[in-house]
Every structure is written in structure tokens, then in C-alpha cells.
Design a protein that fits this description.
The protein is of the alpha/beta class. The protein folds into two domains: 165 residues, NAD(P)-binding Rossmann-like Domain (Rossmann fold, 3-Layer(aba) Sandwich); 122 residues, N-(1-d-carboxylethyl)-l-norvaline Dehydrogenase, domain 2, CATH 1.10.1040. The protein is 54% helix and 13% strand. Strand 5, helix 6 and strand 6 form a beta-alpha-beta unit. The longest helix has 30 residues. The N and C termini lie far apart (60 Å). 46% of the residues are buried. Bound molecules: nicotinamide-adenine-dinucleotide (NAD). The site of nicotinamide-adenine-dinucleotide has 25 residues, from helix 4.
Length: 306
């Protein structure tokens, strides 16, 4: 089992930039590519590494190519080309690995791995839990799906970027778990926002409610502690995760449920609400701005009064 030392990294945006930076710091030979050349230039200035001018170039000679892109459709196009010669598969040799760390649809991930297999290229899904701050601190929780031996070969890469690595099972299982984890998180956030908007309308104080809900009924509650209190009450809206990405992840979770005939009425409604909010407010707004959807409907504000 050969060691992975040369890595091609595609998509050096909010998450990809710090993640690939940690690979450079850990001593891997990293080449980066992004459809926006200014992102590649910014990366090389900040972290070092080698810039690539095309998808073939970023893949050539690489033991592994990592993608950190918007979704599985973009990943598929970048990896297989779908009519274009300029793609990752055209540059990769047999025995190499494509690791998709984006939040992708698990069915699409399985399809991609099947398409790569006849070329002797392995597919691994390794989505991450934790936002930009976790990416910067190399404390991401990384879920991994794929063949046991291939995953073991990739482990040193994950160790450079994350604090925990969970091998979930075969290809696609990690992407399924990631979408479901984001469903739990997104549902809990709007659950708290809705309760607090009703409470505010009734005359309760926003901070009092947030602080009371945790010990009284919610237990440790990540969305209230890490999103409502520091980003909503203060109007900072700075978690670094776009609202549109949450809507995308919810769609993936519900498509996955549908594909296996699972009963998911709550998830369907949560997904509809997030998609509607994105349509009304905008894809790129911070996820915590979803509060405006409830504030506008209820004629209240959860801004902390100081
Ligand atoms: P981003 O938009 O900041 O970065 C994506 C990068 O991909 C951009 O630099 C863009 O130019 C590049 N790109 C787009 N299409 C491309 C193409 N065809 N070829 C090459 N490069 C291309 O997004 P992000 O916040 O870094 O998120 C990336 C992925 O990580 C998404 O799947 C998202 O759901 C997931 N994610 C994000 C967070 C977060 O907090 N931001 C947390 C966990 C997971």
C-alpha cells in the first residue's frame, strides 16, 4: 500500500483554503486549483504549495485528489469531465484516490465511485462537521466512507485537518451521515428560533429565553449556545456557513430518505422552510440570518436590547 504524499486540492474557498493549508504545513506536496484563479493566488501567497492552471494539471502525478466544492454535481463534472477533456480523471493514474470532502449527495457519490472503478481509481467520501473556525484550527470532525484499506491510506491526510475521524462504512455512507447530521442541526436551530419568536411576541426577553432553554429542557444545545446567543442576539451573523448550503444539505437528506422509502415528514417540512427562506432572503447569507424569516412573519426582533 503506497503512501500518499502528492495531493491535488480543488476548491480553495472558505473551507478548502485552511484545510489545504494544513496539508502544506504537515509536509504534503500540495498543488491547488480553483475555478477562480484569484483564490489559487491567495492560497499560494498565504500557505505555499504549487498553483495549477487546469484540472488535468492539478491531478497529474497526484496520489490523491481532494475536492472541496459546492456539491456533488460540480464534483462529478470536475472529476469526470462529462464531455470535457479537462478533468481530474484524465490526469490521474491507476492506484490513485479521489476524496470528496464537500457535502455531497450520497447517491451521486456512489455513482462517481462506480465510474472511477474501471479506471483503477478509488473513491472516498470524507465530509466534515464544523465550520470555518474548525477548518482553521484543524479540529474538523471528518466522517469517512470507503474501502477499509483505502481509508487507512488516506488517514494521515485527515489527521492533518481534523480532530476526529469516523469511518462510517462503504462509499456514500459518510455523505449520508453528514446530510442527516445537518438535518438534526438545522431542525434544532429553527426549533429554537420559532419558540423564541413566539416567546418574544408574548413579551419574554430573548436572552433570558435562550439561557433558560438550555438547562431547562434542551440540554446541551449546540444551535442555541453557538448560533442563537453569539450570532443572532448580537446580530453578528458570522458562523461562516451560507444559508443556501444548509438548504442544500436538507435536500440531500430528504432525497436520501426518499430513495430508500423512509418516513420523514418532519424533515420534509424543515427542508421546505429552509428552501423558502433562501429564496426570500438569499443563498449567501449566513445561516443564522434565517431568524429574519421568523421575525418578519411574527413582527418581532430577537436582537438583544442592551
Ligand atoms: P466556498 O464557496 O467558499 O468554496 C468553494 C470553492 O469552490 C470556491 O472557491 C469556488 O470558486 C470553487 N469552485 C466552484 N466550482 C468550481 C469548479 N467547477 N472547479 C473548481 N473550483 C470550483 O464554499 P465552502 O464554504 O468552502 O464550502 C465548500 C463545501 O463544504 C460545500 O459542499 C459545503 O456544503 C461544505 N461545508 C461548508 C461548511 C462551512 O461552514 N462553510 C462547513 C462544512 C461543510
Amino acid at each position: 500500500m503506497s503512501k500518499i504524499s502528492k495531493i491535488g486540492f480543488i476548491g480553495v474557498g472558505n473551507m478548502g483554503n485552511p484545510m489545504a493549508g494544513h496539508l502544506v504545513k504537515a509536509g504534503f506536496d500540495v498543488t491547488v486549483y480553483d475555478i477562480r484563479p484569484e483564490m489559487v493566488r491567495a492560497f499560494v501567497t498565504q500557505h505555499g504549495g504549487t498553483p495549477a492552471g487546469s484540472l488535468v494539471e492539478v491531478a497529474e502525478g497526484a496520489d490523491a485528489v481532494i475536492t472541496m466544492l459546492p456539491d456533488d454535481k460540480v464534483v462529478r463534472k470536475v472529476v469526470l469531465g462529462e464531455g470535457s477533456e479537462n478533468c481530474v480523471a484524465a490526469g490521474l493514474a491507476q492506484g490513485s484516490v479521489v476524496i470528496d470532502m464537500s457535502t455531497s449527495n450520497p447517491t451521486g457519490t456512489r455513482g462517481l465511485a462506480e465510474a472511477l472503478q474501471p479506471r483503477g481509481i478509488a473513491g472516498v467520501d470524507a465530509p466534515v462537521m464544523g465550520g470555518v473556525v474548525f477548518a482553521r484550527d484543524a479540529t474538523l470532525d471528518i466522517m469517512v466512507g470507503g474501502d477499509k484499506e483505502v481509508v487507512a491510506r488516506c488517514r494521515p491526510l485527515f489527521e492533518a485537518m481534523g480532530r476526529s475521524i469516523i469511518h462510517c462504512g462503504g462509499v456514500g455512507t459518510a455523505h449520508a451521515l453528514k446530510a442527516l447530521a445537518n438535518y438534526v442541526n438545522a431542525c434544532a436551530l429553527i426549533n429554537a428560533i420559532e419558540a423564541m419568536a413566539i416567546g418574544k411576541k408574548f413579551g419574554l426577553d430573548a436572552r433570558l429565553m435562550a439561557e433558560a432553554l438550555i438547562p431547562m429542557c434542551a440540554g446541551r444545545n449546540h444551535p442555541i449556545e453557538k448560533k442563537v446567543i453569539p450570532h443572532i442576539l448580537t446580530r453578528k451573523y458570522g458562523t461562516g456557513m451560507a444559508m443556501g448550503f444548509i438548504a442544500k444539505d436538507l435536500k440531500i437528506a430528504m432525497e436520501t430518505a426518499k430513495s430508500i422509502g423512509a418516513f420523514a415528514p418532519l424533515g420534509e417540512r424543515v427542508s421546505e422552510l429552509w428552501s423558502d427562506a433562501v429564496e426570500k432572503l438569499g443563498f449567501d447569507l449566513d445561516q443564522t440570518q434565517i431568524v429574519r424569516y421568523w421575525e418578519e412573519a411574527n413582527g418581532v426582533s430577537l436582537t438583544e436590547e442592551r
